[in-house]
UniProtKB/TrEMBL annotation:
<dbReference type="GO" id="GO:0008233">
    <property type="term" value="F:peptidase activity"/>
</dbReference>
<dbReference type="GO" id="GO:0006508">
    <property type="term" value="P:proteolysis"/>
</dbReference>
<dbReference type="InterPro" id="IPR058193">
    <property type="entry name" value="VanY/YodJ_core_dom"/>
</dbReference>
<protein>
    <recommendedName>
        <fullName>D-alanyl-D-alanine carboxypeptidase-like core domain-containing protein</fullName>
    </recommendedName>
</protein>
<feature type="compositionally biased region" description="Basic and acidic residues">
    <location>
        <begin position="36"/>
        <end position="46"/>
    </location>
</feature>
<dbReference type="InterPro" id="IPR009045">
    <property type="entry name" value="Zn_M74/Hedgehog-like"/>
</dbReference>
<dbReference type="InterPro" id="IPR052179">
    <property type="entry name" value="DD-CPase-like"/>
</dbReference>
<dbReference type="Pfam" id="PF02557">
    <property type="entry name" value="VanY"/>
</dbReference>
<feature type="region of interest" description="Disordered">
    <location>
        <begin position="36"/>
        <end position="67"/>
    </location>
</feature>
<feature type="domain" description="D-alanyl-D-alanine carboxypeptidase-like core">
    <location>
        <begin position="112"/>
        <end position="241"/>
    </location>
</feature>
<dbReference type="InterPro" id="IPR003709">
    <property type="entry name" value="VanY-like_core_dom"/>
</dbReference>
<feature type="compositionally biased region" description="Polar residues">
    <location>
        <begin position="47"/>
        <end position="65"/>
    </location>
</feature>
C-alpha cells in the first residue's frame, strides 16, 4: 500500500506540474480539474501550502510543482485563489445575485451571477463606463465547480488528459468560482476574452478606473511569473475599494500582497 500511495503522490505531482504552467485564467470557461489534489484541511493561513514540493529547490509560482493548500476562509472578500490556493471542494458562495448590467447574452444563467457586494460595485463601474463613453458588457462571471468539472472532462475526452491540462485549470483554483471575478468586454461584444481587448479604450479605462470601484485587473502584464497566468486585460476581480487602491498604488499583485503579509509575521 505504501508503494502505491507514493506512486499516487508522484503522479499527482506530475499533474500539478502541468497545471502550474502559465495558462489562461479565463479561456472561455476552461477552468476545471481531474481529481481533488492532496491537501490538508486544517491549515490556519490560507496562503500556507499543505505540503512542500517533492522536487527539491523549487520556488516560484508558475514553473514548479507545489501541492495546493485549501483556502480556509473562502468567503472573505480579499481571498487569494490561484493554482497554489484551492477552494474547498464544491465551494459555492451563498450570496450570489444577478448584477443589473449589460451582458453579451440575455439568459439568466449561472455565469451572469456574482456575490452581492461585487455585483453592486460592478453596477457602479458599468454605470461610470457608460457615462464616460466606454460601455462595457459582461462575458462570464460566476462559474461553479460542477461546470468546470464537466468542461474539463469534455476536454479530456476530446484531446486527452495531458493536452487538457495544458489549457485548462484545475477545479477549485478558478477565481470565477468565488463569485468575485468577471470577464468583461466592450459593449459590442468584440474581443471577448481575447488579447485584442487590451487595445480597446475600455481596457485602458479599466486600468485607470476599476480600482475606484473595488476591482483590480487580476492578471497583469509582466506579472505572469507571479500570478501564473498570462495577461488578461478582461478579467476583473473584486477585492474591495481599499485593497484595490492599495494594490494599485503599490503596483503589486494579490500574490505579492499576501507574500508580504506572511513575511511580516
Ligand atoms: Zn476570467
Amino acid at each position: 500500500m505504501e508503494a502505491l500511495n507514493m506512486s499516487k503522490i508522484g503522479m499527482t505531482t506530475m499533474l500539478l506540474s502541468a497545471f502550474l504552467l502559465v495558462t489562461s485564467g479565463c479561456s472561455h470557461d476552461n477552468h476545471s480539474m481531474v481529481k481533488e489534489p492532496i491537501t490538508e484541511k486544517d491549515k490556519p493561513v490560507q496562503t500556507e501550502r499543505s505540503n512542500t514540493s517533492s522536487i527539491e529547490g523549487t520556488t516560484g509560482a508558475n514553473q514548479n510543482p507545489v501541492v495546493p493548500a485549501t483556502v480556509m476562509k473562502p468567503n472573505e472578500i480579499p481571498v487569494l485563489v490561484n493554482k497554489e490556493n484551492i477552494l474547498p471542494d464544491n465551494y459555492k458562495p451563498s450570496d450570489l445575485v444577478y448584477p443589473d448590467v449589460r451582458f453579451t447574452f440575455t439568459e439568466k444563467i449561472e455565469k451572469r451571477m456574482m456575490r452581492k457586494e461585487a455585483a453592486a460595485a460592478l453596477e457602479l463601474l458599468f454605470q461610470a463606463a457608460d457615462e464616460q463613453g466606454v460601455p462595457l458588457a459582461g462575458v462570464s462571471a460566476y462559474r461553479s465547480q460542477k461546470t468546470q468539472t464537466s468542461l474539463f472532462n469534455h476536454y479530456v475526452e476530446k484531446d486527452g488528459l495531458e493536452a487538457a491540462l495544458l489549457y485548462s485549470a484545475t477545479p477549485g483554483t478558478s477565481e470565477h468560482q468565488t463569485g468575485l471575478a468577471i470577464d468583461v468586454t466592450s459593449s459590442d461584444g468584440s474581443c471577448a476574452a481575447e488579447d485584442c481587448f487590451g487595445e480597446t479604450d475600455q481596457a485602458q479605462w479599466l486600468i485607470d478606473n476599476a480600482p475606484t470601484y473595488g476591482f483590480i485587473i487580476r492578471y497583469e502584464e509582466g506579472k505572469e511569473s507571479i500570478t501564473g497566468y498570462k495577461y488578461e486585460p478582461w478579467h476583473l476581480r473584486y477585492v474591495g475599494k481599499k485593497l484595490a487602491q492599495e494594490l494599485t498604488d503599490r503596483g503589486i499583485t494579490l500574490e505579492e500582497y499576501y507574500q508580504a503579509s506572511l513575511a511580516a509575521k
